Amino acid sequence: xxxDKSEKKTKSKKxxxxxxxxxxxxxxxxxxxxxxxxxxxxxxxxEMKRLKDREYYQRKKAENKVKTVNDMTExxxxxxxxxxxxxxxxxxxxxxxxxxxxxxxxxxxxNEIEDDNRESxxxxxxxxxxxxxxxxxxxxxxxxxxxxxMEKIINQLQKKNTEKQKT
Length: 167
What we know:
Blueprint: H1 2-10, H2 21-40, H3 43-62, H4 74-104, H5 110-166
């Protein structure tokens, strides 16, 4: 009975690739669940959650699992600040773009939403096919290179073997 439980714990779920469509859909659903959960909270519950989160962060920081800017080298600081800058720019651009689209466009109908969804799925599928083809091309190229190396080694060994047989 106890062995069955330990066996179940060792079995891990299939991990999704972060750039895959399935992963993105999974994250969207998870984020929606989290938003819904947070929206239902009372202000007291929200404050309790913030306290717990803060304690969790402090504990992680004490265990040195979270690296603060003070602990980083100058190069790491520059790199981190650059990523922060880029992320902030993306966030602002996205926010501005959404505001412009909402201001200019009339209310959507259900058919337009379905068409947009279908187009995005098609685009994502084409992107995946392109990625798979590129991966296949790279593996074939590596294998051809490997075969050429092996053929070269075989030829050298055959020459050595024929020279030994002559003497």
